[in-house]
DNA sequence: AAATGTATGAAACTAAATTTCATGATGATC
DNA sequence: GATCATCATGAAATTTAGTTTCATACATTT
Protein backbone atom coordinates (compact mmCIF):
# COMPACT_ATOMS: atom_id res chain seq x y z
CA UNK A 1 0.00 0.00 0.00
CA UNK A 2 1.39 3.37 -1.00
CA UNK A 3 1.89 6.41 1.15
CA UNK A 4 -1.44 8.02 0.37
CA UNK A 5 -3.55 5.00 1.16
CA UNK A 6 -1.49 4.37 4.24
CA UNK A 7 -2.13 7.92 5.32
CA UNK A 8 -5.85 7.42 4.88
CA UNK A 9 -5.75 4.24 6.89
CA UNK A 10 -3.77 5.85 9.66
CA UNK A 11 -6.02 8.84 9.92
CA UNK A 12 -9.23 6.81 10.01
CA UNK A 13 -9.49 6.91 13.83
CA UNK A 14 -9.27 10.67 13.91
CA UNK A 15 -11.90 11.23 11.23
CA UNK A 16 -15.54 12.00 11.78
CA UNK A 17 -18.23 9.43 11.03
CA UNK A 18 -19.02 10.51 7.51
CA UNK A 19 -15.38 10.93 6.68
CA UNK A 20 -14.57 7.52 8.03
CA UNK A 21 -17.17 5.98 5.75
CA UNK A 22 -15.50 7.77 2.86
CA UNK A 23 -12.08 6.58 3.89
CA UNK A 24 -13.19 2.99 4.14
CA UNK A 25 -14.81 3.14 0.76
CA UNK A 26 -11.69 4.61 -0.80
CA UNK A 27 -9.53 1.94 0.77
CA UNK A 28 -11.83 -0.77 -0.50
CA UNK A 29 -11.87 0.27 -4.15
CA UNK A 30 -9.19 2.90 -4.71
CA UNK A 31 -8.89 2.21 -8.40
CA UNK A 32 -12.49 3.19 -9.07
CA UNK A 33 -12.20 6.64 -7.55
CA UNK A 34 -10.38 8.51 -10.31
CA UNK A 35 -13.27 8.12 -12.70
CA UNK A 36 -15.91 9.11 -10.18
CA UNK A 37 -17.50 12.43 -9.37
CA UNK A 38 -18.12 13.73 -5.89
CA UNK A 39 -21.79 12.95 -6.31
CA UNK A 40 -21.25 9.33 -7.24
CA UNK A 41 -18.73 8.84 -4.53
CA UNK A 42 -20.97 10.36 -1.91
CA UNK A 43 -23.79 8.05 -2.94
CA UNK A 44 -21.59 4.98 -2.96
CA UNK A 45 -20.07 5.72 0.38
CA UNK A 46 -23.33 6.81 1.95
CA UNK A 47 -22.35 10.39 2.66
CA UNK A 48 -22.76 13.74 0.99
CA UNK A 49 -20.82 15.67 -1.57
CA UNK A 50 -19.67 18.10 1.04
CA UNK A 51 -18.26 15.27 3.08
CA UNK A 52 -16.26 14.08 0.12
CA UNK A 53 -14.60 17.44 -0.19
CA UNK A 54 -14.14 17.67 3.56
CA UNK A 55 -12.57 14.24 3.60
CA UNK A 56 -9.93 15.34 1.13
CA UNK A 57 -9.10 18.35 3.23
CA UNK A 58 -8.95 16.22 6.36
CA UNK A 59 -6.31 13.96 4.94
CA UNK A 60 -4.35 17.00 3.90
CA UNK A 61 -5.25 17.40 0.25
CA UNK A 62 -6.76 20.66 -0.86
CA UNK A 63 -9.38 19.53 -3.33
CA UNK A 64 -11.11 16.48 -4.66
CA UNK A 65 -9.42 16.92 -7.99
CA UNK A 66 -5.98 16.89 -6.47
CA UNK A 67 -6.97 13.87 -4.49
CA UNK A 68 -7.84 12.01 -7.66
CA UNK A 69 -4.55 12.95 -9.25
CA UNK A 70 -2.60 11.80 -6.21
CA UNK A 71 -4.48 8.55 -6.18
CA UNK A 72 -3.79 7.84 -9.84
CA UNK A 73 -0.13 8.54 -9.26
CA UNK A 74 -0.06 6.14 -6.39
CA UNK A 75 -1.99 3.42 -8.11
CA UNK A 76 0.19 3.69 -11.17
CA UNK A 77 3.15 2.68 -9.09
CA UNK A 78 1.88 -0.30 -7.23
CA UNK A 79 0.08 -2.40 -9.72
CA UNK A 80 -1.93 -4.31 -7.17
CA UNK A 81 -5.40 -5.30 -8.11
CA UNK A 82 -8.25 -6.70 -6.12
CA UNK A 83 -10.11 -9.79 -7.01
CA UNK A 84 -13.60 -9.49 -5.78
CA UNK A 85 -16.46 -10.35 -8.00
CA UNK A 86 -19.26 -9.72 -5.61
CA UNK A 87 -20.06 -6.23 -6.55
CA UNK A 88 -22.72 -6.77 -9.15
CA UNK A 89 -25.36 -7.19 -6.54
CA UNK A 90 -26.01 -3.55 -5.82
CA UNK A 91 -28.09 -1.35 -8.07
CA UNK A 92 -25.50 -0.07 -10.45
CA UNK A 93 -25.73 2.42 -13.26
CA UNK A 94 -24.55 1.37 -16.71
CA UNK A 95 -21.21 3.08 -16.31
CA UNK A 96 -20.59 1.38 -12.98
CA UNK A 97 -21.21 -1.91 -14.60
CA UNK A 98 -18.74 -1.02 -17.26
CA UNK A 99 -16.10 -0.22 -14.69
CA UNK A 100 -16.73 -3.46 -12.92
CA UNK A 101 -16.47 -5.49 -16.06
CA UNK A 102 -13.18 -3.81 -16.77
CA UNK A 103 -12.04 -4.82 -13.39
CA UNK A 104 -13.29 -8.38 -13.54
CA UNK A 105 -11.68 -8.92 -16.90
CA UNK A 106 -8.29 -7.57 -15.95
CA UNK A 107 -8.30 -9.50 -12.69
CA UNK A 108 -9.11 -12.69 -14.50
CA UNK A 109 -6.31 -12.20 -16.99
CA UNK A 110 -3.90 -11.43 -14.23
CA UNK A 111 -4.86 -14.64 -12.48
CA UNK A 112 -3.84 -16.84 -15.40
CA UNK A 113 -0.29 -17.43 -14.20
CA UNK A 114 -1.74 -19.13 -11.15
CA UNK A 115 -3.32 -21.85 -13.25
CA UNK A 116 -1.37 -22.10 -16.48
CA UNK A 117 1.52 -24.49 -16.24
CA UNK A 118 4.69 -23.30 -17.87
CA UNK A 119 5.79 -26.63 -19.15
CA UNK A 120 2.38 -27.51 -20.50
CA UNK A 121 2.35 -24.23 -22.34
CA UNK A 122 5.73 -24.91 -23.88
CA UNK A 123 4.58 -28.36 -24.87
CA UNK A 124 1.56 -26.78 -26.53
CA UNK A 125 3.71 -24.38 -28.52
CA UNK A 126 5.93 -27.23 -29.62
CA UNK A 127 3.02 -29.43 -30.61
CA UNK A 128 1.23 -26.74 -32.57
CA UNK A 129 4.48 -25.88 -34.28
CA UNK A 130 4.69 -29.36 -35.68
CA UNK A 131 1.04 -29.68 -36.51
CA UNK A 132 -0.49 -29.37 -39.93
CA UNK A 133 -4.17 -29.17 -39.22
CA UNK A 134 -5.82 -27.52 -36.27
CA UNK A 135 -9.40 -28.00 -35.23
CA UNK A 136 -10.80 -25.53 -32.76
CA UNK A 137 -13.87 -26.74 -31.02
CA UNK A 138 -15.87 -25.00 -28.33
CA UNK A 139 -19.58 -24.58 -27.87
CA UNK A 140 -21.65 -21.95 -26.11
CA UNK A 141 -19.50 -19.34 -24.47
CA UNK A 142 -16.36 -21.07 -25.65
CA UNK A 143 -17.30 -20.68 -29.30
CA UNK A 144 -15.86 -17.17 -29.22
CA UNK A 145 -12.42 -18.45 -28.36
CA UNK A 146 -12.67 -21.11 -31.04
CA UNK A 147 -13.51 -18.53 -33.68
CA UNK A 148 -10.67 -16.35 -32.52
CA UNK A 149 -8.13 -19.14 -32.66
CA UNK A 150 -9.43 -20.18 -36.04
CA UNK A 151 -8.85 -16.70 -37.40
CA UNK A 152 -5.43 -16.26 -35.84
CA UNK A 153 -3.90 -19.56 -36.84
CA UNK A 154 -5.29 -19.34 -40.32
CA UNK A 155 -3.22 -16.19 -40.65
CA UNK A 156 -0.18 -18.29 -39.86
CA UNK A 157 -0.91 -20.68 -42.69
CA UNK A 158 -2.44 -23.58 -40.81
CA UNK A 159 -5.27 -25.58 -42.24
CA UNK A 160 -7.80 -24.70 -39.58
CA UNK A 161 -11.37 -25.57 -38.87
CA UNK A 162 -13.78 -24.14 -36.36
CA UNK A 163 -17.29 -25.23 -36.83
CA UNK A 164 -20.32 -25.46 -34.63
CA UNK A 165 -21.63 -28.56 -36.25
CA UNK A 166 -20.55 -31.62 -34.31
CA UNK A 167 -21.33 -34.09 -37.05
CA UNK A 168 -19.56 -32.01 -39.62
CA UNK A 169 -16.44 -32.07 -37.48
CA UNK A 170 -16.77 -35.75 -36.75
CA UNK A 171 -16.51 -36.59 -40.38
CA UNK A 172 -13.20 -34.78 -40.68
CA UNK A 173 -11.56 -36.52 -37.75
CA UNK A 174 -10.62 -39.79 -39.50
CA UNK A 175 -8.45 -37.80 -41.88
CA UNK A 176 -6.32 -36.33 -39.12
CA UNK A 177 -2.64 -37.20 -39.10
CA UNK A 178 -0.45 -37.95 -36.17
CA UNK A 179 0.76 -34.40 -35.81
CA UNK A 180 -2.61 -32.75 -36.01
CA UNK A 181 -4.25 -31.06 -33.10
CA UNK A 182 -7.68 -30.61 -31.62
CA UNK A 183 -7.97 -27.53 -29.46
CA UNK A 184 -10.78 -28.51 -27.14
CA UNK A 185 -12.20 -25.50 -25.38
CA UNK A 186 -14.60 -25.93 -22.52
CA UNK A 187 -14.74 -24.09 -19.25
CA UNK A 188 -16.36 -26.88 -17.30
CA UNK A 189 -14.44 -29.64 -19.03
CA UNK A 190 -17.64 -31.64 -19.07
CA UNK A 191 -19.26 -30.58 -22.31
CA UNK A 192 -20.32 -33.80 -23.94
CA UNK A 193 -19.71 -32.93 -27.56
CA UNK A 194 -16.25 -31.59 -26.83
CA UNK A 195 -15.37 -34.73 -24.91
CA UNK A 196 -16.65 -37.07 -27.56
CA UNK A 197 -14.79 -35.28 -30.28
CA UNK A 198 -11.58 -35.31 -28.27
CA UNK A 199 -11.80 -39.01 -27.53
CA UNK A 200 -12.47 -39.85 -31.13
CA UNK A 201 -9.54 -37.72 -32.25
CA UNK A 202 -7.21 -39.34 -29.77
CA UNK A 203 -8.26 -42.76 -30.99
CA UNK A 204 -7.30 -41.65 -34.47
CA UNK A 205 -3.90 -40.52 -33.23
CA UNK A 206 -4.25 -36.74 -33.05
CA UNK A 207 -3.28 -34.68 -30.00
CA UNK A 208 -5.79 -32.96 -27.80
CA UNK A 209 -4.85 -29.61 -26.30
CA UNK A 210 -7.46 -28.61 -23.78
CA UNK A 211 -8.21 -25.06 -22.72
CA UNK A 212 -10.27 -25.62 -19.62
CA UNK A 213 -10.69 -24.66 -16.02
CA UNK A 214 -8.18 -26.05 -13.61
CA UNK A 215 -10.05 -28.84 -11.89
CA UNK A 216 -10.42 -32.55 -12.15
CA UNK A 217 -12.91 -32.62 -14.99
CA UNK A 218 -13.03 -35.38 -17.62
CA UNK A 219 -11.47 -33.13 -20.24
CA UNK A 220 -8.69 -32.19 -17.85
CA UNK A 221 -7.94 -35.84 -17.18
CA UNK A 222 -8.05 -37.02 -20.74
CA UNK A 223 -6.30 -34.24 -22.63
CA UNK A 224 -2.76 -34.68 -23.87
CA UNK A 225 -1.84 -31.12 -23.00
CA UNK A 226 -3.69 -28.98 -20.49
CA UNK A 227 -3.76 -25.21 -20.68
CA UNK A 228 -5.67 -24.29 -17.59
CA UNK A 229 -7.71 -21.19 -16.99
CA UNK A 230 -8.05 -20.02 -13.42
CA UNK A 231 -11.30 -20.70 -11.64
CA UNK A 232 -12.78 -17.31 -11.03
CA UNK A 233 -15.50 -16.72 -8.56
CA UNK A 234 -18.76 -17.45 -10.21
CA UNK A 235 -21.90 -15.43 -10.36
CA UNK A 236 -24.64 -16.22 -12.80
CA UNK A 237 -24.86 -12.58 -13.85
CA UNK A 238 -21.23 -12.43 -14.80
CA UNK A 239 -21.48 -15.89 -16.25
CA UNK A 240 -18.61 -16.89 -18.41
CA UNK A 241 -17.29 -13.42 -19.12
CA UNK A 242 -13.99 -13.60 -17.31
CA UNK A 243 -13.36 -17.20 -18.32
CA UNK A 244 -13.63 -16.28 -21.91
CA UNK A 245 -11.05 -13.56 -21.47
CA UNK A 246 -8.63 -16.04 -20.05
CA UNK A 247 -9.24 -18.51 -22.87
CA UNK A 248 -8.57 -15.78 -25.38
CA UNK A 249 -5.44 -14.60 -23.67
CA UNK A 250 -4.06 -18.10 -23.68
CA UNK A 251 -4.79 -18.40 -27.37
CA UNK A 252 -3.14 -15.03 -27.95
CA UNK A 253 0.00 -16.19 -26.23
CA UNK A 254 0.02 -19.43 -28.13
CA UNK A 255 -0.42 -17.57 -31.38
CA UNK A 256 2.40 -15.14 -30.71
CA UNK A 257 4.71 -17.90 -29.56
CA UNK A 258 4.05 -19.92 -32.67
CA UNK A 259 4.39 -16.82 -34.79
CA UNK A 260 7.73 -16.23 -33.22
CA UNK A 261 9.05 -19.67 -33.89
CA UNK A 262 7.68 -19.80 -37.42
CA UNK A 263 9.06 -16.31 -37.70
CA UNK A 264 10.53 -15.41 -41.03
CA UNK A 265 8.82 -18.24 -42.86
CA UNK A 266 5.36 -16.77 -42.64
CA UNK A 267 6.18 -13.07 -42.77
CA UNK A 268 5.85 -12.62 -46.55
CA UNK A 269 2.42 -14.21 -46.69
CA UNK A 270 1.38 -12.39 -43.57
CA UNK A 271 2.27 -9.00 -44.96
CA UNK A 272 0.82 -9.81 -48.32
CA UNK A 273 -2.60 -10.45 -46.79
CA UNK A 274 -2.27 -7.42 -44.61
CA UNK A 275 -1.48 -5.03 -47.45
CA UNK A 276 -4.40 -6.37 -49.39
CA UNK A 277 -6.69 -5.61 -46.46
CA UNK A 278 -5.47 -2.03 -46.37
CA UNK A 279 -5.74 -1.64 -50.13
CA UNK A 280 -9.33 -2.87 -50.15
CA UNK A 281 -10.38 -0.25 -47.65
CA UNK A 282 -10.55 2.53 -50.14
CA UNK B 1 9.48 8.95 -22.69
CA UNK B 2 6.37 6.92 -21.99
CA UNK B 3 3.88 5.59 -24.50
CA UNK B 4 1.51 8.52 -24.23
CA UNK B 5 4.08 11.21 -24.83
CA UNK B 6 5.59 9.15 -27.60
CA UNK B 7 2.20 8.91 -29.17
CA UNK B 8 1.81 12.67 -29.01
CA UNK B 9 5.20 13.16 -30.59
CA UNK B 10 4.47 10.69 -33.31
CA UNK B 11 1.15 12.21 -34.17
CA UNK B 12 2.42 15.78 -34.31
CA UNK B 13 2.85 15.75 -38.10
CA UNK B 14 -0.73 14.70 -38.66
CA UNK B 15 -2.23 17.29 -36.33
CA UNK B 16 -3.68 20.64 -37.32
CA UNK B 17 -1.92 23.89 -36.52
CA UNK B 18 -3.66 24.61 -33.24
CA UNK B 19 -3.38 21.03 -32.14
CA UNK B 20 0.28 20.95 -32.96
CA UNK B 21 0.88 23.98 -30.76
CA UNK B 22 -0.90 22.15 -27.97
CA UNK B 23 1.15 19.02 -28.52
CA UNK B 24 4.42 20.90 -28.42
CA UNK B 25 3.42 22.65 -25.25
CA UNK B 26 2.46 19.40 -23.61
CA UNK B 27 5.73 17.78 -24.62
CA UNK B 28 7.68 20.70 -23.26
CA UNK B 29 6.08 20.75 -19.83
CA UNK B 30 4.11 17.56 -19.36
CA UNK B 31 4.26 17.67 -15.59
CA UNK B 32 2.45 20.99 -15.45
CA UNK B 33 -0.60 19.87 -17.36
CA UNK B 34 -2.44 17.86 -14.72
CA UNK B 35 -3.02 20.91 -12.57
CA UNK B 36 -4.15 23.15 -15.40
CA UNK B 37 -7.60 23.91 -16.71
CA UNK B 38 -8.51 23.95 -20.35
CA UNK B 39 -8.58 27.72 -20.21
CA UNK B 40 -5.09 28.08 -18.77
CA UNK B 41 -3.70 25.55 -21.14
CA UNK B 42 -5.28 27.22 -24.12
CA UNK B 43 -3.80 30.56 -23.12
CA UNK B 44 -0.35 29.15 -22.46
CA UNK B 45 -0.28 27.27 -25.69
CA UNK B 46 -1.83 30.06 -27.71
CA UNK B 47 -4.96 28.24 -28.76
CA UNK B 48 -8.55 27.97 -27.60
CA UNK B 49 -10.31 25.81 -25.09
CA UNK B 50 -12.04 23.93 -27.84
CA UNK B 51 -8.72 23.11 -29.38
CA UNK B 52 -7.52 21.63 -26.13
CA UNK B 53 -10.45 19.25 -26.07
CA UNK B 54 -10.03 18.50 -29.74
CA UNK B 55 -6.37 17.76 -29.22
CA UNK B 56 -7.22 15.12 -26.65
CA UNK B 57 -9.63 13.46 -29.02
CA UNK B 58 -7.12 13.57 -31.84
CA UNK B 59 -4.57 11.62 -29.88
CA UNK B 60 -7.22 9.09 -29.04
CA UNK B 61 -8.36 10.11 -25.58
CA UNK B 62 -11.98 10.92 -25.08
CA UNK B 63 -11.81 13.89 -22.74
CA UNK B 64 -9.45 16.37 -21.19
CA UNK B 65 -10.04 14.84 -17.80
CA UNK B 66 -9.01 11.42 -18.97
CA UNK B 67 -6.01 12.96 -20.64
CA UNK B 68 -4.87 14.43 -17.37
CA UNK B 69 -5.30 11.14 -15.58
CA UNK B 70 -3.33 9.29 -18.22
CA UNK B 71 -0.59 11.82 -18.08
CA UNK B 72 -0.26 11.58 -14.33
CA UNK B 73 -0.15 7.83 -14.60
CA UNK B 74 2.55 8.01 -17.19
CA UNK B 75 4.65 10.52 -15.35
CA UNK B 76 4.34 8.47 -12.18
CA UNK B 77 5.92 5.45 -13.73
CA UNK B 78 8.31 6.61 -16.34
CA UNK B 79 10.70 3.94 -15.24
CA UNK B 80 8.74 1.05 -16.55
CA UNK B 81 8.34 0.62 -20.26
CA UNK B 82 5.18 -1.34 -20.27
CA UNK B 83 3.88 -0.95 -23.75
CA UNK B 84 7.01 -1.99 -25.40
CA UNK B 85 6.30 -4.38 -28.17
CA UNK B 86 9.85 -4.92 -29.16
CA UNK B 87 10.08 -7.94 -26.95
CA UNK B 88 9.15 -10.16 -29.82
CA UNK B 89 12.47 -9.55 -31.43
CA UNK B 90 14.65 -10.86 -28.67
CA UNK B 91 14.88 -14.51 -27.87
CA UNK B 92 11.98 -14.82 -25.47
CA UNK B 93 10.87 -18.13 -24.17
CA UNK B 94 7.24 -19.05 -24.73
CA UNK B 95 6.35 -18.30 -21.17
CA UNK B 96 7.82 -14.80 -21.40
CA UNK B 97 5.64 -14.16 -24.36
CA UNK B 98 2.69 -15.33 -22.39
CA UNK B 99 3.47 -12.87 -19.63
CA UNK B 100 3.78 -10.00 -22.04
CA UNK B 101 0.48 -10.85 -23.66
CA UNK B 102 -1.12 -10.87 -20.27
CA UNK B 103 0.24 -7.45 -19.70
CA UNK B 104 -0.70 -6.01 -23.04
CA UNK B 105 -4.22 -7.29 -22.68
CA UNK B 106 -4.79 -5.94 -19.21
CA UNK B 107 -3.30 -2.57 -20.12
CA UNK B 108 -5.61 -2.29 -23.09
CA UNK B 109 -8.66 -3.08 -21.02
CA UNK B 110 -7.61 -0.59 -18.40
CA UNK B 111 -7.28 2.08 -21.04
CA UNK B 112 -10.91 1.81 -22.13
CA UNK B 113 -12.18 4.51 -19.78
CA UNK B 114 -10.02 7.00 -21.63
CA UNK B 115 -11.90 6.47 -24.85
CA UNK B 116 -15.37 5.23 -24.00
CA UNK B 117 -17.80 8.06 -23.48
CA UNK B 118 -20.12 7.61 -20.57
CA UNK B 119 -23.10 9.16 -22.21
CA UNK B 120 -22.66 7.28 -25.42
CA UNK B 121 -22.50 4.09 -23.45
CA UNK B 122 -25.71 4.89 -21.65
CA UNK B 123 -27.33 5.76 -24.93
CA UNK B 124 -26.24 2.42 -26.29
CA UNK B 125 -27.74 0.57 -23.34
CA UNK B 126 -30.97 2.45 -23.80
CA UNK B 127 -31.11 1.83 -27.51
CA UNK B 128 -30.40 -1.87 -27.25
CA UNK B 129 -32.96 -2.13 -24.51
CA UNK B 130 -35.64 -0.91 -26.89
CA UNK B 131 -34.44 -2.89 -29.86
CA UNK B 132 -35.96 -6.06 -31.18
CA UNK B 133 -33.39 -7.28 -33.62
CA UNK B 134 -29.66 -6.98 -33.34
CA UNK B 135 -27.21 -7.54 -36.13
CA UNK B 136 -23.58 -7.93 -35.16
CA UNK B 137 -21.20 -7.35 -37.99
CA UNK B 138 -17.44 -7.45 -37.93
CA UNK B 139 -14.94 -9.00 -40.29
CA UNK B 140 -11.41 -10.25 -39.79
CA UNK B 141 -10.21 -9.74 -36.26
CA UNK B 142 -13.50 -8.14 -35.30
CA UNK B 143 -15.45 -11.26 -36.17
CA UNK B 144 -14.63 -12.65 -32.75
CA UNK B 145 -16.40 -9.80 -31.03
CA UNK B 146 -19.38 -10.16 -33.34
CA UNK B 147 -19.71 -13.84 -32.52
CA UNK B 148 -19.42 -13.12 -28.86
CA UNK B 149 -22.11 -10.46 -28.91
CA UNK B 150 -24.31 -12.73 -30.98
CA UNK B 151 -24.08 -15.44 -28.38
CA UNK B 152 -24.58 -13.15 -25.41
CA UNK B 153 -27.57 -11.23 -26.65
CA UNK B 154 -29.26 -14.33 -27.94
CA UNK B 155 -29.21 -15.52 -24.35
CA UNK B 156 -31.19 -12.41 -23.47
CA UNK B 157 -33.90 -13.24 -25.94
CA UNK B 158 -33.00 -10.91 -28.78
CA UNK B 159 -33.42 -11.93 -32.37
CA UNK B 160 -29.75 -11.75 -33.27
CA UNK B 161 -27.71 -12.30 -36.35
CA UNK B 162 -23.97 -12.48 -36.80
CA UNK B 163 -22.90 -13.71 -40.15
CA UNK B 164 -19.80 -13.38 -42.23
CA UNK B 165 -21.64 -13.26 -45.48
CA UNK B 166 -22.16 -9.68 -46.54
CA UNK B 167 -24.83 -10.42 -49.13
CA UNK B 168 -26.70 -12.63 -46.73
CA UNK B 169 -26.84 -9.78 -44.24
CA UNK B 170 -27.76 -7.24 -46.88
CA UNK B 171 -30.91 -9.11 -47.71
CA UNK B 172 -32.10 -8.94 -44.13
CA UNK B 173 -31.62 -5.20 -43.75
CA UNK B 174 -34.82 -4.06 -45.49
CA UNK B 175 -36.82 -5.93 -42.88
CA UNK B 176 -35.34 -3.98 -40.00
CA UNK B 177 -37.68 -1.83 -37.94
CA UNK B 178 -37.04 1.57 -36.50
CA UNK B 179 -35.85 0.23 -33.16
CA UNK B 180 -33.48 -2.32 -34.54
CA UNK B 181 -29.76 -2.05 -34.21
CA UNK B 182 -26.64 -2.80 -36.20
CA UNK B 183 -23.59 -3.27 -34.06
CA UNK B 184 -20.85 -2.33 -36.46
CA UNK B 185 -17.49 -3.54 -35.24
CA UNK B 186 -14.34 -2.36 -36.92
CA UNK B 187 -11.10 -1.27 -35.38
CA UNK B 188 -10.04 0.99 -38.20
CA UNK B 189 -13.55 2.28 -38.88
CA UNK B 190 -12.74 2.02 -42.55
CA UNK B 191 -13.76 -1.51 -43.41
CA UNK B 192 -15.78 -1.17 -46.55
CA UNK B 193 -18.34 -3.90 -45.97
CA UNK B 194 -19.06 -2.69 -42.48
CA UNK B 195 -19.52 0.86 -43.71
CA UNK B 196 -21.80 -0.12 -46.56
CA UNK B 197 -23.96 -2.24 -44.32
CA UNK B 198 -24.24 0.54 -41.76
CA UNK B 199 -25.21 3.12 -44.34
CA UNK B 200 -27.82 0.89 -45.83
CA UNK B 201 -29.24 0.13 -42.41
CA UNK B 202 -29.42 3.81 -41.52
CA UNK B 203 -31.24 4.52 -44.74
CA UNK B 204 -33.77 1.92 -43.73
CA UNK B 205 -34.20 3.58 -40.35
CA UNK B 206 -32.22 1.33 -38.03
CA UNK B 207 -29.63 2.62 -35.56
CA UNK B 208 -25.93 2.01 -35.95
CA UNK B 209 -23.89 1.47 -32.82
CA UNK B 210 -20.22 1.46 -33.71
CA UNK B 211 -17.51 -0.24 -31.72
CA UNK B 212 -14.43 1.33 -33.20
CA UNK B 213 -11.17 3.06 -32.41
CA UNK B 214 -11.42 6.63 -31.26
CA UNK B 215 -10.36 8.57 -34.29
CA UNK B 216 -11.95 10.40 -37.12
CA UNK B 217 -12.75 7.41 -39.27
CA UNK B 218 -15.80 7.22 -41.54
CA UNK B 219 -17.53 4.80 -39.22
CA UNK B 220 -16.87 7.08 -36.27
CA UNK B 221 -18.41 9.99 -38.09
CA UNK B 222 -21.43 8.22 -39.43
CA UNK B 223 -22.50 6.04 -36.52
CA UNK B 224 -25.50 7.01 -34.42
CA UNK B 225 -23.78 5.90 -31.24
CA UNK B 226 -20.04 5.52 -30.83
CA UNK B 227 -18.46 3.17 -28.35
CA UNK B 228 -14.81 3.92 -28.72
CA UNK B 229 -11.93 1.61 -28.05
CA UNK B 230 -8.64 3.20 -27.06
CA UNK B 231 -5.87 3.42 -29.59
CA UNK B 232 -3.22 1.07 -28.34
CA UNK B 233 0.27 1.12 -29.60
CA UNK B 234 0.47 -0.87 -32.73
CA UNK B 235 2.86 -3.46 -33.86
CA UNK B 236 2.17 -5.82 -36.69
CA UNK B 237 3.20 -8.79 -34.60
CA UNK B 238 0.72 -8.06 -31.90
CA UNK B 239 -1.79 -7.06 -34.51
CA UNK B 240 -5.27 -6.70 -33.25
CA UNK B 241 -4.90 -8.67 -30.05
CA UNK B 242 -5.42 -5.88 -27.54
CA UNK B 243 -8.07 -4.15 -29.64
CA UNK B 244 -10.14 -7.24 -29.66
CA UNK B 245 -9.97 -7.44 -25.89
CA UNK B 246 -11.34 -3.95 -25.64
CA UNK B 247 -14.14 -4.68 -28.09
CA UNK B 248 -15.10 -7.70 -26.07
CA UNK B 249 -15.01 -5.86 -22.80
CA UNK B 250 -17.31 -3.20 -24.16
CA UNK B 251 -19.72 -5.86 -25.34
CA UNK B 252 -19.53 -7.53 -21.95
CA UNK B 253 -20.46 -4.31 -20.24
CA UNK B 254 -23.30 -3.70 -22.66
CA UNK B 255 -24.59 -7.19 -22.11
CA UNK B 256 -24.51 -6.95 -18.35
CA UNK B 257 -26.15 -3.55 -18.38
CA UNK B 258 -28.95 -4.74 -20.61
CA UNK B 259 -29.29 -7.90 -18.58
CA UNK B 260 -29.60 -5.76 -15.52
CA UNK B 261 -32.34 -3.56 -16.93
CA UNK B 262 -34.24 -6.44 -18.48
CA UNK B 263 -33.62 -8.15 -15.18
CA UNK B 264 -36.40 -10.28 -13.90
CA UNK B 265 -38.09 -10.60 -17.28
CA UNK B 266 -35.46 -12.82 -18.76
CA UNK B 267 -34.36 -14.73 -15.69
CA UNK B 268 -36.71 -17.70 -16.07
CA UNK B 269 -35.69 -18.37 -19.66
CA UNK B 270 -32.08 -17.76 -18.80
CA UNK B 271 -32.08 -20.31 -16.03
CA UNK B 272 -34.09 -22.77 -18.03
CA UNK B 273 -31.45 -22.82 -20.75
CA UNK B 274 -28.71 -22.96 -18.20
CA UNK B 275 -30.14 -25.96 -16.39
CA UNK B 276 -30.57 -27.76 -19.63
CA UNK B 277 -26.91 -27.22 -20.42
CA UNK B 278 -25.94 -28.72 -17.10
CA UNK B 279 -28.35 -31.64 -17.50
CA UNK B 280 -26.97 -32.49 -20.92
CA UNK B 281 -23.46 -32.75 -19.62
CA UNK B 282 -23.95 -36.16 -18.09
C1' DA C 1 -15.03 32.47 -59.26
C1' DA C 2 -18.16 29.38 -56.80
C1' DA C 3 -18.52 25.55 -53.93
C1' DT C 4 -17.14 22.52 -50.68
C1' DG C 5 -14.65 21.30 -46.89
C1' DT C 6 -11.85 22.02 -42.73
C1' DA C 7 -10.04 24.48 -38.75
C1' DT C 8 -10.79 27.62 -35.27
C1' DG C 9 -12.23 30.34 -31.20
C1' DA C 10 -16.24 32.74 -28.94
C1' DA C 11 -19.99 31.86 -26.65
C1' DA C 12 -23.66 28.84 -24.92
C1' DC C 13 -24.36 25.08 -22.42
C1' DT C 14 -23.67 21.29 -19.19
C1' DA C 15 -21.58 18.99 -15.63
C1' DA C 16 -18.82 18.87 -11.63
C1' DA C 17 -16.71 20.75 -7.54
C1' DT C 18 -16.98 23.80 -3.75
C1' DT C 19 -19.13 26.70 -0.42
C1' DT C 20 -22.83 28.19 2.31
C1' DC C 21 -26.24 27.50 5.35
C1' DA C 22 -29.92 25.38 8.10
C1' DT C 23 -30.61 21.52 10.97
C1' DG C 24 -30.01 18.35 14.40
C1' DA C 25 -27.05 15.98 17.52
C1' DT C 26 -23.88 16.06 21.41
C1' DG C 27 -22.01 17.73 25.31
C1' DA C 28 -20.73 21.27 28.56
C1' DT C 29 -22.37 24.87 31.87
C1' DC C 30 -25.45 27.04 34.94
C1' DG D 1 -32.82 19.42 33.94
C1' DA D 2 -32.76 23.56 30.91
C1' DT D 3 -29.88 26.43 28.11
C1' DC D 4 -26.28 27.46 25.30
C1' DA D 5 -22.29 26.45 22.44
C1' DT D 6 -20.07 23.44 19.32
C1' DC D 7 -19.73 20.35 15.84
C1' DA D 8 -20.98 17.31 12.04
C1' DT D 9 -23.78 16.84 8.30
C1' DG D 10 -26.26 17.02 3.83
C1' DA D 11 -29.28 19.97 0.78
C1' DA D 12 -29.08 23.63 -1.92
C1' DA D 13 -26.74 27.61 -3.99
C1' DT D 14 -22.81 29.10 -6.09
C1' DT D 15 -18.73 28.94 -8.63
C1' DT D 16 -15.73 26.83 -11.61
C1' DA D 17 -14.36 23.82 -15.22
C1' DG D 18 -15.22 21.16 -19.30
C1' DT D 19 -17.66 20.36 -23.56
C1' DT D 20 -20.43 21.40 -27.49
C1' DT D 21 -22.31 24.35 -30.82
C1' DC D 22 -22.04 27.64 -34.09
C1' DA D 23 -20.48 31.37 -37.07
C1' DT D 24 -16.56 32.70 -39.41
C1' DA D 25 -12.37 32.48 -41.81
C1' DC D 26 -9.37 30.13 -44.48
C1' DA D 27 -7.94 26.76 -47.77
C1' DT D 28 -8.81 23.53 -51.46
C1' DT D 29 -11.14 21.83 -55.29
C1' DT D 30 -13.92 22.16 -59.55
TrEMBL record, chains A, B:
Keywords: DNA-binding, Transcription, Transcription regulation. It comes from the Bacteria. Residues 2-78 form the HTH rpiR-type domain. GO terms for molecular function: carbohydrate derivative binding; DNA binding; DNA-binding transcription factor activity. It holds the Pfam family SIS. The keyword Nucleotide-binding does not apply. GO terms for biological process: carbohydrate derivative metabolic process. The keyword Transcription regulation applies. Signal peptide: none annotated. Residues 124-264 form the SIS domain. This is DNA-binding transcriptional regulator, MurR/RpiR family, contains HTH and SIS domains. It comes from Salinibacillus kushneri. The lineage of its organism: Bacteria, Bacillati, Bacillota, Bacilli, Bacillales.
Amino acid sequence: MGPLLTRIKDSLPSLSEAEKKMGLYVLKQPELIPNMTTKELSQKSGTSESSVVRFCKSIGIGSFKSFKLELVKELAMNEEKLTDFNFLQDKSEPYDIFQKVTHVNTSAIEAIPTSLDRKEFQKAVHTVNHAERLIFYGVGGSATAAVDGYYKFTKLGYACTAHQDFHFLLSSIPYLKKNDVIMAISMSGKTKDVLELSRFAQKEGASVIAITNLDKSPLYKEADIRLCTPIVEHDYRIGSIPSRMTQLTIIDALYLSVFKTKGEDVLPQYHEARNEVIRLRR
